[in-house]
Amino acid sequence: MLWIAQRATAAVLAICVAVHLATIIYAVQGGLSAAEILSRTRGSGGWLAFYLAFVAAVSVHAPIGLRAIFIEWLGWRGRSRDLALLAFSLIIFWMGARAALGVFA
Amino acid sequence: MRVLVQRTSGFQEFEVPREPSQTVLDVVTYIQRRLDPTLAYRYACRVGMCGSCAMTVNGVPRWTCRTHVDRVLKDDALSVGPLKNLPVIRDLVTDMRDFFDKWARAGGQFKGGRTKQDDFAKVSPQSEERTLVDAGIECIGCGVCYAACDVVAWNPDYLGPAALNRAWTLTKDVRDKAKMERLRAVAGDAGCHSCHTHMSCTERCPKQLSPTAGIAGLKREVTKAVLRGEL
Q1: Interface of B with A in 78-107 (CB under 8 A)
Q2: Handedness of CA A56, A61, A62, A68 (dihedral sign)
Q3: What ipTM score was computed for the predicted complex, to two decimals?
Q4: What pLDDT was estimated at residue B76?
Q5: Domain housing A18
Q6: CA nearest A75 in B: which residue?
Q7: Which of B67, B74, B79 is closest to B31 using CA atoms?
Q8: pLDDT band at residue A59 using 50, 70 and 90 as cut-offs
């Protein structure tokens, strides 16, 4: 199941990262200030949904990859590892969602 | 040529004369017969059929009987050691028990559903399943892929390319009746999902098989079974 979750979120991330990078490159042409960015992004429900999906995919994808690294590099297994990964997942989701809400809400 | 042999007691250097068409196995045999009879190594057929003479040659796992010195000699020197990722019994001889136990753990036994009263199973050589089985079935269990695999080195529980390749060929065997049991055995941290697709096994396999392709096939089969709710 974890493998399927990681593959599925990888597919979502492939699209999200491409859109994210393309938007940055497109938007910064000619220079931008923080105020200009916020004036364009605030209240944009579609982009908020996009970035929340992006953040959700990252918070599923990254801990599963980290899990394999923990097994192979540290030999870390069992409940303590799973709890640490859950905490990591929640932290990145919280940080990402906070950023998305700050910019787009 | 200078030959550096990795023995249980440490590295030992030997001077061995070059011969035409000399194989690395010839070199090791020369050392054992002429220079140091205490050197332990293993071989049987000498012609690439039994898979027992696999060793690490210049850092790479190979069949020593099918490796010509001409191809691997660097600056008139050669290094020979036991296969990696396996416990060493003595000198160049490794303990293959773990390697073969993992075949069993991966569901490597054929489990048919017919009795001697039944007719022969008719399997078309052109059928999709049989074509896939053919691509992976020539493994002789030499352990070269297992020694080449980084994931085995990092995760000692990992079943390894040979055992998973065996599981894959049985998964595609239309006569076999233990498919779900086997998919359960190869799913999880010790199984196919731990493969990082480095392809070292495929790169090193002396039979030019692709355990990587078989492992990818197992990942697909497990995914399908999970989505169908069978696993």
Answers
A1: none
A2: positive
A3: 0.75
A4: 95
A5: 2-104
A6: B155
A7: B79
A8: very high
